[in-house]
Amino acid sequence: MARAMNARDRKERQIIRATEKLVAKRGFHGTRMDDIARAAKLPRPNLYYYFSSKRAIYRRILTGLRADWVKAFEQIAADREPREAIRDYIRVKIEYSRKHPVPSKVFAMEVIRGSDMLTDEENNQIRDLTAEKCAVIERWMDEGKMDRLDARHFFFLLWGATQYYADFEQQIKSILGTKRLTAAQFEAGVATVTQVVLNGCGLGD
Questions:
Q1: What's the Cα-to-Cα distance from 106 to each of 6, 167, 173, rounded to whole Å?
Q2: Euclidean distance between CA atoms 196 and 162, whole angstroms
Q3: Residue 40's closest CA among 22, 58, 61?
Q4: What mean pLDDT do residues 155-181 have?
């Protein structure tokens, strides 16, 4: 059961959400504490009661993003059948883009910047987890359960396809001629990406 948020939790979340929106538009270096205070509707001195610096706020955001990224990867597990595991991973990733487009953009910007706000240990953990999941894909290939491919590039493809729905949301809305993407439009995205990916690795119907 989720823990109820206390007053401090709510204020911290308010600050984090405001910072995410600013960083997604302006980047980390283009965002100032004054901007965050205005967006969070708090006096600037109050920010320092909850976070010691802009970097501390951003580090909290990155920690949460990294945790969400790791959780999604749980779908790729050796004890599952590849078709269901990959299908569920695609759905979880696109669903995250639907529900959390702003944090997804923040993560994309951090990667483009070179992930310099992540520690060496965190970058190594991401690399090691990806290698672990690549090993799962390779095991399925060795067992003849799916076509042979480069597992690393397979994940690059999945990340690009699924995170596009958040990172390039404006382009999708423009092409679809809508101001807001509907659940049905996201579902069409899930179905299309899933069909193409599964067919492409020998897991289609």
A1: 26, 9, 19
A2: 12
A3: 22
A4: 91
The C-alpha torsion from 111 through 115 and 121 to 127, rounded to 10°, is 30
Question: pLDDT (tens digit, 9 = 90+) per residue, 83-105?
Answer: 999 999 999 999 988 888 888 88
Those residues with Cβ within 8 angstroms of residue 72's Cβ, 6 or more apart along the chain or in another chain: 89, 92, 93, 96
C-alpha to C-alpha distance for 15 and 46, rounded to whole angstroms: 10
Rounded to two decimals, the pTM is 0.87
Torsion of Cα atoms, 13 then 104 then 96 then 154, to 10°:
-150
Rounded to the nearest 5 degrees, what angle is found at the Cα of 122, between the Cα atoms of 119 and 128?
A: 140
Sign of CA dihedral 172, 177, 178, 179: positive
HSE (CB half, 13 Å, CA atoms) of 128? 6
Is the pLDDT score of 123 beyond 90? Answer: no
Q: In whole angstroms, what is the distance from residue 132 CA to residue 138 CA?
A: 10
Task: Note the pLDDT tens digit of each residue in 14-65.
Answer: 999 999 999 888 888 889 999 999 999 999 999 999 999 999 998 898 888 8
